[in-house]
Design goal:
Layout lengths: L2 H6 L4 E2 L8 H9 L3 H14 L3 H13 L1 E2 L5 H4 L1 H25 L2 H11 L1
Parallel strand pairs: 1-2
Helix pairs in contact: 2-3
């Protein structure tokens, strides 16, 4: 279970990463549903209802729903730790390649034959 779904399981919030007030994203994350399809359903309802009912409900929901709680430590630094992890993995791969070259048996025999 991801961090965002754990956070939204306790309540319904407007997402801080939403496009218009974050209502669709907040509902989608709360229901564990695709944001894309939530937005499509709202747009279809908006068009077929004559704009005012769904538009009014959307604005009321935006006013009544609390904004998503501020970023926690884990979420705020998730990007930094991911970048650090990728850098570490890259350095680890380079070190492994270097070790295979240095500890290669053929290289060891060549060094012994030509240096002695």
């Amino acid at each position: 279970m991801s961090y965002s779904s754990e956070m939204h399981s306790s309540g319904l919030y407007r997402s801080r990463r939403g496009i218009f007030f974050g209502v669709c994203r907040g509902i989608a994350e709360y229901l564990n549903f695709s944001v894309f399809w939530t937005r499509i359903l709202v747009i279809i309802a908006f068009i077929f209802s004559g704009f005012w009912p769904v538009g009014a409900i959307y604005l009321v929901a935006a006013l009544l729903m609390k904004p998503e709680p501020c970023c926690s430590y884990e979420r705020e630094y998730a990007g930094a730790t991911g970048k650090l992890r990728r850098t570490f993995d890259s350095l680890d791969e380079r070190l492994q390649r270097l070790e295979t070259v240095v500890t290669d048996r053929a290289r060891d025999w060549d060094r012994r034959l030509y240096n002695e």
